[in-house]
Design a protein that fits this description.
The chain contains 15 helices and 10 strands. With about 425 residues, it is an alpha+beta fold. Strands 1-6-4-3-2-7-8-9 form an 8-stranded antiparallel barrel. The N and C termini lie far apart (about 55 Å). Bound molecules: triphosphate (3PO). Triphosphate (3PO) binds next to α5. It comes from Citrobacter gillenii.
């Protein structure tokens, strides 16, 4: 098994030539483009996908390879996942060649091999540069082609920075250099994920409002912070993709996700000093302005400033960029229970909301939108330890108030305000109200 670590950029079509020229100046070992044809396999009931696996045979210059990838972690455009590669003498699946440990119960499911059929394919030219950065080996692959499933097809235009040996930080360093030029944005969808989407009928992708964050019972505050930022980053990534694809409302969701990042940094402000995130917040401010002003999704998301802000968040998260700012006392504090942290902060946010909205505000409601949004976002990040239905309903009332204020529906505003301020806390079970 090897651990694949790669950072994926989607390249704007217009920027491909300039990018290639740029890559040629980096001094790496160049490999001329080669055609890669990949067939992905699946059972009729989607067994591999339901186990977060992807299986393909790749053909390149008459040589064949079978690869099984297992879902790992995707942070922004950084993909980290286990993969197994086996050389084949002919383009036919032979699952027995994969080690037994890859299968959920430690053995190859009996009827899997007989059920697998080709589901979709990717066909692209890969041009490569092998580069050394700070003693680490990185393969840069420029992939141009398409992903196809039945009647559906989508172009592929990607640059992948794959760590061959060494440290992930080298990949991030190189990514920072490259992203300073126009034309790149981080990509969180693997080629397989795109293929599956096409194979399932290419349904329009829908907006996904931020959900309640779920964190394991024994999580520390630091793990809570990481999970919250990962959620915000994935919301940002997902809606950016939708915005480029022309989905209505996606731009607001991109801005909402960036707002969520800020609110998370404020929520954890007692554990992570503000100076630890100063650089990140500066980049966020600049790219929020660009996104708010730009009318075209393409020019906004391929703008270096926007791409840099998202890369900075990815890097901050992956390298735990707050750590150097924590002394021993702060280290101990951030290792404390996230459950305890959640309870304390839920009470604080609820108290703030009830104070602000405890009485009718006349024509002053709109002024309170930022505060209301920050509190709703924080509560979404903290409510994961409680009954999801009860917590969602509690939050939905405040979201209803927010919506009514934004759409200036006066009767609804008072209705939701009255409901919201009389809700019982969902996080206190001990009668301590
Ligand atoms: O060549 P790989 O293994 O990086 O795979 P790919 O065909 O680029 O697909 P993806 O990296 O999107 O899984």
């Amino acid at each position: 098994m090897t651990q694949e670590i790669e950072l994926k950029f989607i390249v704007n079509n217009d920027a491909v030539d300039a990018l290639r020229e740029r890559l040629n100046t980096l001094g790496g070992e160049h490999h001329a483009p080669s055609q890669l044809l990949n067939i992905y396999y699946e059972t009729p009931d989607g067994w591999l996908r339901s186990h977060d696996m992807g299986l393909r045979i790749r053909g390149e210059n008459g040589r064949y390879e079978m690869t099984l990838k297992i879902a790992g972690r995707v942070t922004g455009g950084l993909h980290q996942r286990p993969e197994y590669n086996v050389a084949l003498s002919e383009p036919e699946l032979d699952l027995a060649l994969l080690p037994a440990e890859v299968w959920p119960n430690g053995e190859l499911p009996a009827d899997l091999a007989s059920q697998l059929q080709p589901l979709f394919s990717t066909d692209f030219n890969r041009e490569k540069w092998l580069l050394e950065v700070d003693g680490s080996q990185i393969e840069l692959a420029l992939d141009l082609g398409e992903v196809k499933a039945g009647e559906f097809a989508e172009p592929l235009c990607e640059l992948e920075l794959e760590l061959v040996s060494g440290d992930t930080r080298a990949v991030l360093k190189l990514a920072n250099q490259l992203v300073a030029e126009e034309g790149l944005r981080l990509g969180s969808l693997s080629k397989a994920a795109r293929g599956y989407h096409l194979a399932q009928g290419n349904a329009p992708r829908e907006l996904k409002p931020t959900r309640i964050l779920k964190v394991p019972a024994k999580a520390s505050i630091e793990q809570g912070l990481e999970a919250a930022l990962e959620l915000a980053l994935s919301q940002w990534q997902y809606h950016e993709e939708l915005w480029v694809r022309g989905v209505k409302g996606a731009k607001s969701e991109v801005l909402a996700a960036m707002g969520l990042v800020r609110h998370i940094l404020m929520l954890f402000g007692g554990n992570v000093p503000r100076k630890a995130s100063a650089h990140l917040r500066d980049l966020l401010t600049q790219s929020e302005a660009i996104i708010a002003a730009e009318t075209s999704a393409v020019s906004a998301v391929y703008n270096p400033q926007t791409a840099m802000a998202k890369l900075a968040l990815t890097e901050w998260l992956v390298t735990k960029g707050w750590q150097p700012f924590l002394d021993a006392k702060a280290q101990a504090k951030i290792a404390d229970s996230f459950k305890r942290f959640s309870d304390t902060h839920l009470s604080r946010h609820a108290a703030e909301l009830k104070t602000v909205f405890g009485q009718p505000l006349g024509d002053q409601y709109a002024d309170q939108i930022p505060r209301l949004t920050r509190n709703i976002d924080s509560i979404l990040m903290l409510a994961g330890y409680y009954d999801e239905k009860v917590a969602s309903e509690w939050i939905a009332t405040w979201q209803g108030l927010r919506h009514a204020i934004m759409t200036r529906q006066h009767i609804e505003i008072e209705h939701y305000r009255n409901e919201a301020i009389s809700e019982e806390p969902f996080w206190l079970h001990s009668g301590k109200r």
